[in-house]
């Protein structure tokens, strides 16, 4: 049987990717020290498949064609060309059987995922892979990408994202094949890249988020998108994707690791790693 073993929330700032692969050339030791412990932690979980909750930044999608929720059902996912050529990272191999199982289970529950049988993935997906796994020739897991629109209003609410995670958790628990599954939510933490509040960082809110995502995700799911934008900035609202991850885990989790660094680029960078220790979502016990 498949099992959601662990969840990770992690920033996807392009500069963080460069630092974690050692190509940024700058003084990176502190940032590296904050994020590198996740690599051993994840390796010890012996994951087969990673469900990656991320947002596309008008790379594979566009502002003219932008699904609210989308899921990959492709044999592989190449890094997207974001204007400077694709990031030089491995192509990710898809877990097709799990993708189709999630599609068959989650859509009938009322989450209308756009199904993508061809999909390039941008830094929202590839930077967290570098943070978790370094720069291998092949990623050590297969993947299911799930994209959430957090770039063009109206975006789905935090509660809706949490509930989507619940549906994903239930679907994984009903998958008949053996899989150790990890779920990662990417983006954040507080940042705004544009307008009068460009450079906005809110450490108080970020630290509250890192704490409450462990045992009180309901409090975070209860915030409106306007509150997210107000507290975390227009791009900091990416944090709702961490709630999809958290929703896929049971009520009971154990925090394995948490880290925070400001700034990376213009952005607050954070990470949290959670072991799923309770009964699977949707199973009483
Ligand atoms: C940065 C942060 C993001 O979330 C992103 O998608 C792109 C850039 C940044 O801080 O540079
Ligand atoms: Fe982003």
Q: How would you sum up this structure, described in words?
A:
The chain is of the alpha/beta class. It has a single domain, classed as 3-Layer(aba) Sandwich (Protocatechuate 4,5-dioxygenase, Chain B), CATH 3.40.830.10. The chain has ten helices and ten strands. The strands form two sheets. The protein has an eight-stranded mixed beta sheet, sandwiched between helices. A hairpin with a 2-residue loop joins strand 9 and strand 10. The two termini are 17 Å apart. The model has no long low-confidence stretch (mean pLDDT 95). 3,4-dihydroxybenzoic acid (DHB) binds next to helix 1. The site of fe (iii) ion (FE) has 6 residues, from loops.
Tally of individual helices: 10
CATH level 3 topology = Protocatechuate 4,5-dioxygenase, Chain B
CATH superfamily label: LigB-like
- Counting structural domains, the number is 1
Taken as a percent bin, the fraction of beta residues is 15-25%
End-to-end separation in angstroms reads 17 Å
As a whole number of angstroms, the C-alpha radius of gyration is: 17 Å
What is the H-and-E element order? EHHHEEEEHEHEHEHHHHEE
Share of helix, binned: 25-40%
Bound compounds, each kind once, are: 3,4-dihydroxybenzoic acid, fe (iii) ion
The shape, in one word, is globular
CATH class category label = Alpha Beta
Largest sheet, described in full?
8 strands, mixed
The stretches of 5 or more residues where confidence is low (pLDDT under 50) are none
By oligomeric state, this entry counts as single chain
> What strand order characterises the main sheet?
6-3-7-2-8-1-10-9
